[in-house]
């Protein structure tokens, strides 16, 4: 592995590590407000994974040796529930005591989505292949964490998936056609 690291990528990794600390701290703040055992399990698994991932990233940065940050695996995969039903309007809580499982899951989802974006952005700025791979894997891990939380929210009715009427959906899908053989008929550039 390269023994030097560029200033720009070091600052990106610094941002990712700070974000990881913030995420772990944020998830720990949610623990006393989480009542559903299923969500408690997801929350604890994600805290454990984030902690291990953080430690691996620190080791890689300090030792400049390749570390396996691991791959996040969701506990289960469920079929999404599609369609909107009468939903309750949302407003901010007037007190921390009103925080519930919906709030916890929503906060977790927002955190993991933002972290995935941050990690992918940082990866695009890295010149060192090992750091780049670490950050890409980190972005994938955050995306898997987000999907796990989204599945939970969807199944609980917290995050419905709106759909178009069939004719509208079909019209959008039919708008795009395969490129076909046109590419094969082009003269190669010399």
CATH 2nd-level architecture of the domain at 1-74 and 100-156: Up-down Bundle
CATH topology of the domain at 1-74 and 100-156: Ferritin
Shape: flat
CATH class of the domain at 1-74 and 100-156: Mainly Alpha
Order of helices and strands: HHHHH
Number of strands: 0
State the end-to-end CA separation: 38 Å
Mean pLDDT: 90
Query: Which residues sit in consecutive blocks of at least 5 with pLDDT less than 50?
Result: none
Radius of gyration: 21 Å
Helix content: 55-70%
In DSSP terms, counting alpha (H) and pi (I) runs of 4 or more, how many helices? Answer: 5
Largest sheet entry: none
Strand residues, percent: under 5%
**Structural class of the helices, strands and pairings?**
mainly alpha
**CATH superfamily name of the domain at 1-74 and 100-156?**
Ferritin, core subunit, four-helix bundle
């Amino acid at each position: 592995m390269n023994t030097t690291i560029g200033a720009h990528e070091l600052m990106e990794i610094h941002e990712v590590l700070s974000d990881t600390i913030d995420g772990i701290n944020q998830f720990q703040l949610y623990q006393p407000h989480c009542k559903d055992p299923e969500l408690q399990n997801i929350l604890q698994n994600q805290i454990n994974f984030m902690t291990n991932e953080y430690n691996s990233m620190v080791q890689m940065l300090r030792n400049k040796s390749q570390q396996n940050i691991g791959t996040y695996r969701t506990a289960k995969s469920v079929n999404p529930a599609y369609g909107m039903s009468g939903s309750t309007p949302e407003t901010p809580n007037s007190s921390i005591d009103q925080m519930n499982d919906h709030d916890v899951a929503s906060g977790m989802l927002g955190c993991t989505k933002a972290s995935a974006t941050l990690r992918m952005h940082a990866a695009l700025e890295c010149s060192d292949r090992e750091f780049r791979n670490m950050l890409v894997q980190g972005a994938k891990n955050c995306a898997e964490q987000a999907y796990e939380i989204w599945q939970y929210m969807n199944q609980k009715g917290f995050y419905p998936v709106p759909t178009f009427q069939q004719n509208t959906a079909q019209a959008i899908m039919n708008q795009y056609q395969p490129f076909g053989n046109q590419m094969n008929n082009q003269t190669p550039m010399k």
